[in-house]
Amino acid sequence: MARQSDTKQRILQTARDLFAQRGVQQTSLQDIAESLGITKPALYYHFASRDDLIRSIVTPLLDDGETFLARMEQREDVAARELVEGFFDFHHRHRADMMLLLTELTTLAELGLIDVVLAWRARLTTLVYGPAATLEQQARAVLAFGGMQDCTMQFPDAPVEQLRAATVTAACAALGIDD
Predict the structure, then answer these.
(1) Does the CA dihedral 47-53-57-60 come out positive or negative?
(2) What pLDDT digit, counting tens, does each position of 130-140 carry?
(3) Is the pLDDT of residue 106 over 50?
(4) Domain 1-47: CATH architecture, name and number where available
(5) pLDDT cut 90: percent of the chain above it
(6) Residue 40 and residue 22: Cα distance in Å, rounded?
(7) Dihedral of CA 159/164/167/169: which sign?
(8) What pLDDT does residue 179 have?
(9) How do the domains of the chain map onto residue ranges?
(10) Interior/surface letters 140-165, b for 16+ CB within 10 angstroms, e for the rest
(11) What is the model's pLDDT at position 151?
């Protein structure tokens, strides 16, 4: 059983690498199989389709994001800065797969995964400003949370603590909350 799991993980990593290099639409399951030195039927044993493979790559990211948001929504006393810090940590942890999401918006929209990610911003906005956020507050939230996501990908070589401090400070300023 461990061998099957190892093979599945190797397939996922190889697919990530090839998707990042060539793009999802330009990478076939045959390309992935050849890169691994396995047959295409062996790959199909683990993943029924390319869509199934893509879902397997992004599902841990989606699950982690949902867990984070649900935990914040359950609390009555979540401070906006804590929310911002947690959201940065989430994005930094998943920055490689977030890059896949952003570079393959069409493919991921077809799979219904983009809607989930966009709904997170609305939920974050509600957590910061409440259910009746003004247009200005909503715009601030889009800039802050989208910008945080961009910072984790734009500066991959920056020391994480420096990047976290700069990004959280900038997001708090965009949200108009005390740092």
Answers:
(1) negative
(2) 999 999 999 99
(3) yes
(4) Orthogonal Bundle (1.10)
(5) 58
(6) 19
(7) negative
(8) 56
(9) 1-47, 51-175
(10) bbbebbeebbebbeeeeeeeeeebbe
(11) 93
User: Using 50, 70 and 90 to split pLDDT, how confident is the model at 1?
Assistant: very low
CB contact burial 11-42 (16+ within 10 A = b; e otherwise): bbebbbebbbeeebeebebeebbeebebeeee
Tokens of 42: 């062996």
Q: Report the pLDDT averaged over residues 36-54.
A: 90
Of 111, 117, 121, 131, residue with least CA distance to 84: 121
The total of other beta-carbon atoms located within 10 Å of residue 100's CB is 21
- The pTM (predicted TM-score) of the whole model is 0.82
Tokens 């802050």 identify what position?
144
What architecture is the 51-175 domain classified under in CATH? Orthogonal Bundle (1.10)
In the numeric block, the tokens 């918006």 are attached to 105
Spatial separation of the C-alpha atoms in residues 52 and 67, rounded to whole Å: 22
Mean pLDDT within 55-71 = 90
CA distance 165 to 85: 9
